[in-house]
């Protein structure tokens, strides 16, 4: 996968960094290319839960989260140093902190803890609420005003997911469900801020700086977690760790934020309605999980909403 490091309208290099004062980065290419980038991000994210399940075969939940964040931060830091990218402007630090707290730490931690007692299939369908959550926070934070058709389709998808969750949990939410719903909120906040920042700096720098800013937390967290949680290196655990660190935590977010900058946060967020269905496929192929009839039916139902939301003006 190639990482674009600058706007094609300005030469790359230290003398014309997209982060220089007064500059503004606009995602290159037509909106269709932005949709493709966001879709690639969704594919990368759809593998996160199965990869996490593999990682948990050899790592404890806290160790897995801390190590994945450090590995992704090292990759991001090397890229930032090699390209001599300037430090973000002070006015962007709060947004980067929100991205770090939501996407780098909060969502991975809460979902990993949930996956200790929940199947990846169940978690994937619950996380189908993320598009609606992101759209709501985007409307509040960015002042976006999607059409009524857009909101109707998004709410229909959310209703299907909620009905599935209640039915699968026997009429009451479990601790894992509570963790997953908390993960939705913090991740939506991180996506919203990341999408906003990706309008003024390249998407890879948004997640790159967020990862680096989290190092003062993830480094000591790793040391403590590894001292308490035993590690058993297997082909599955190492592969799972590498994917969630490189594929989900860095490269997936690179194309995701670039896509959001090109087509807007609400429209990009609705592409994630396809993520549960993709994760269900991976859970069967990679984990051998048995699916209930409700899981694929619910995922297919919310998938139908994508066509409606993508046609509605966001």
What's the number of extended β-strand segments? 0
The rounded Rg comes to: 19 Å
Residues in helix, % = over 70%
**End-to-end Cα distance:** 29 Å
Low-pLDDT parts are 1-29
Oligomeric status = single chain
Secondary-structure blueprint:
Blueprint: H1 31-46, H2 48-55, H3 61-82, H4 93-114, H5 120-126, H6 130-142, H7 148-168, H8 175-197, H9 203-213, H10 215-228, H11 235-263, H12 265-270, H13 275-287, H14 294-311
Helix pairs in contact: 1-11, 1-13, 2-11, 2-13, 3-4, 3-9, 3-10, 3-11, 4-8, 4-9, 5-13, 6-8, 7-14, 8-11, 9-11, 13-14
Structural overview:
This protein is mainly alpha-helical and 314 residues long. It is 71% helix and 0% strand. The protein has 14 helices and no strands. It has helices spanning 31-46, 48-55, 61-82, 93-114, 120-126, 130-142, 148-168, 175-197, 203-213, 215-228, 235-263, 265-270, 275-287, 294-311. Helix 3 (61-82) packs across helix 9. The longest helix is centred in the C-terminal third of the chain and has 29 residues, at 235-263. It is globular. Residues 1-29 have low confidence and may be disordered.
């Amino acid at each position: 996968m190639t990482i674009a490091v600058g706007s094609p309208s300005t030469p790359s290099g230290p003398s014309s960094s997209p982060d220089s004062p007064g500059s503004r980065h606009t995602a290159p290419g037509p909106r269709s290319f932005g949709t493709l980038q966001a879709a690639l991000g969704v594919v990368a994210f759809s593998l996160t839960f199965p990869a996490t399940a593999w990682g948990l075969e050899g790592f404890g939940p806290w160790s897995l989260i801390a190590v994945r964040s450090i590995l992704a931060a090292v990759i991001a830091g090397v890229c930032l140093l090699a390209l001599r990218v300037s430090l973000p402007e002070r006015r962007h630090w709060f947004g980067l902190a929100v991205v770090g707290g939501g996407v780098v730490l909060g969502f991975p931690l809460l979902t990993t803890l949930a996956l200790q007692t929940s199947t990846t299939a169940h978690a994937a369908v619950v996380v189908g609420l993320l598009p609606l959550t992101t759209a709501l926070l985007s409307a509040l934070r960015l002042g976006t005003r999607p059409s009524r058709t857009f909101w109707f389709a998004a709410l229909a998808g959310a209703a299907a997911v909620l009905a599935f969750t209640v039915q699968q949990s026997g009429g009451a939410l479990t601790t894992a469900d509570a963790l997953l719903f908390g993960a939705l909120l913090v991740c939506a906040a991180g996506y919203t801020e990341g999408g906003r920042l990706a309008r003024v700096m390249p998407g890879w720098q948004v997640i790159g700086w967020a990862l680096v800013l989290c190092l003062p937390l993830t480094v000591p967290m790793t040391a403590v977690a590894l001292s308490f949680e035993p590690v058993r290196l297997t082909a599955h655990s190492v592969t799972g760790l590498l994917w969630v660190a490189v594929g989900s935590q860095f490269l997936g977010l690179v194309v995701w934020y670039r896509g959001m900058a090109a087509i807007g946060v609400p429209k990009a967020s609705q592409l994630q309605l396809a993520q549960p269905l993709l994760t269900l496929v991976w859970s069967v192929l990679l984990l051998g999980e048995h699916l209930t009839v409700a899981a694929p039916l619910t995922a297919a139902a919310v998938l139908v909403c994508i066509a409606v939301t993508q046609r509605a003006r966001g």
